[in-house]
């Protein structure tokens, strides 16, 4: 297969052959000396009126022939058949995977911190070397071709393997080192990050944590796309292709206005939820779903007519609403030191025989070869939760005991 490539950065000049124009530059096709530029895959023979060759060279992807017509304003490159020895670079694979993820060239270029022309050139070089169209381009949308969809998982696996190779090289001494991108749900991040980062800075100075706070569904998407290495979230993730390391079970604490009749109680049953006007986080937060599931266990509808129109995206906002007397809520015990010590709030606990908790764990791709590192990081997360729990008890608020669980085999 042969095609023509018109240099896209230079306009046609006077005296050029009629097939050289601003509408054909940058397009693939072939040249018929009698009919002019023909879009497509032709050019099985060179046009007869070539005056001389400027260059004949070969790289890993293709043969490039630059020739010149007597009346041409600039050369034209003919790019030839794929070389069977071609091997894509990691940069080319990363370009393909990022375009497939973003479905937009500008967004993909920004994400990779390169120019859009450089992005396009890397993709063209990859498609040329493989002899396969991976991305279908149009002025309106970017579509991954069927061949691209088939090859995309292999590209991602290759990139994962390269990252694992680097991580293992950095961690050859058995400790956590190098970059580690960690996704954390919003109802965990603010409460364990201070202890987590303190431990990392003191004991793992060569570890470079990057934190991404987002809702569960977004973190799982980032995990699938390789944008983050691990995610701290509520279990089960119920996502194919993921592995889970359970970290700890965390009790819920009832938060009410300080003059509420349940304030200070230590023997609540789940049926007590029916007495509360519960304020919940927006849909999409796993804590919202966990409280709803808790209520359903005792046939309680947590969405009352008075709170249904109240929306909040953070526990801090919910606490302010409770102080104002607009309702009550449930929070994880690790949030108590940060959210429940302000004036106007009181807490209550479920009885010792009541199971009202959530399980937090570490989730990562099953294709990753960094399981040992992630298990080590899971232990750091457990220690961070221990510190958060100690801080909760230090507030003087009476709480049930929580203990980290032993990670299950992976």
From TrEMBL:
Highest taxon, organism lineage: Bacteria
Matching PROSITE patterns: HTH_LYSR
Gene3D superfamilies per the UniProt record, alphabetical: Periplasmic binding protein-like II, Winged helix-like DNA-binding domain superfamily/Winged helix DNA-binding domain
Record domain HTH lysR-type: where: 88-145
Alphabetic keyword roster: Activator, DNA-binding, Transcription, Transcription regulation
Keyword Transcription: yes
Pfam families: HTH_1 (PF00126), LysR_substrate (PF03466)
InterPro entries found in the cross-reference section: LysR_HTH_N, LysR_subst-bd, WH-like_DNA-bd_sf, WH_DNA-bd_sf
MF annotations from Gene Ontology: DNA binding; DNA-binding transcription factor activity
Gene Ontology CC annotations of this record: protein-DNA complex
Family: Belongs to the LysR transcriptional regulatory family.
Entry protein name: Probable hydrogen peroxide-inducible genes activator
């Amino acid at each position: 297969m042969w095609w023509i490539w018109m240099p896209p950065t230079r306009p046609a000049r006077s005296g050029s052959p009629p097939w050289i124009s601003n509408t054909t530059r940058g397009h693939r096709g072939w040249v018929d000396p009698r009919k002019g530029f023909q879009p497509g895959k032709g050019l099985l023979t060179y046009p007869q009126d070539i005056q001389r060759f400027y260059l004949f060279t070969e790289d890993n992807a293709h043969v490039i022939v630059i020739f010149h017509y007597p009346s041409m304003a600039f050369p034209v490159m003919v790019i030839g058949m794929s070389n069977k020895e071609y091997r894509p670079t990691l940069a080319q694979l990363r370009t393909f995977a990022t375009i497939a993820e973003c479905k937009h060239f500008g967004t993909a270029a920004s994400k990779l911190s390169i120019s859009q022309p450089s992005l396009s050139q890397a993709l063209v070089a990859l498609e040329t070397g493989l002899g396969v169209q991976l991305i279908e381009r149009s002025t309106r949308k970017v579509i991954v071709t069927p061949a691209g969809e088939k090859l995309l998982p292999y590209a991602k696996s290759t990139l994962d393997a390269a990252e694992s190779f680097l991580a293992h090289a950095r961690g050859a001494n058995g400790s956590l080192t190098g970059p580690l991108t960690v996704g954390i749900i919003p109802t965990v991040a603010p409460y364990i990050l201070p202890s987590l980062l303190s431990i990392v800075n003191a004991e793992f100075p060569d570890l470079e944590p990057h934190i991404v706070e987002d809702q569960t569904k977004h973190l799982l998407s980032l995990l699938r796309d390789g944008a983050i290495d691990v995610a701290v979230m509520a279990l089960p993730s119920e996502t194919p292709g993921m592995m889970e390391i359970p970290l700890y079970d965390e009790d819920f604490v009832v938060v009410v206005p300080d003059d509420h009749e349940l304030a200070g109680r230590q023997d609540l049953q789940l049926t007590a939820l029916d007495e509360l006007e519960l304020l919940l986080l927006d849909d999409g937060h796993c804590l919202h779903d966990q409280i709803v599931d808790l209520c359903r266990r005792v046939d309680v509808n947590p969405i009352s007519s008075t709170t249904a129109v109240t929306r909040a995206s953070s526990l801090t906002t919910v606490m302010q609403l409770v102080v104002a007397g607009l309702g009550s809520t449930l929070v994880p015990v690790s949030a108590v030191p940060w959210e429940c010590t302000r004036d106007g709030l009181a807490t209550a606990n479920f009885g010792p025989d009541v199971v009202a908790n959530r399980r937090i764990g570490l989730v990562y791709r099953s294709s990753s070869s960094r399981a040992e590192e992630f298990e080590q990081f899971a232990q750091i997360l457990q220690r961070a939760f221990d510190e958060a729990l100690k801080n909760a008890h230090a507030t003087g608020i009476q709480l049930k005991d929580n203990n980290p669980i032993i990670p299950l085999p992976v």
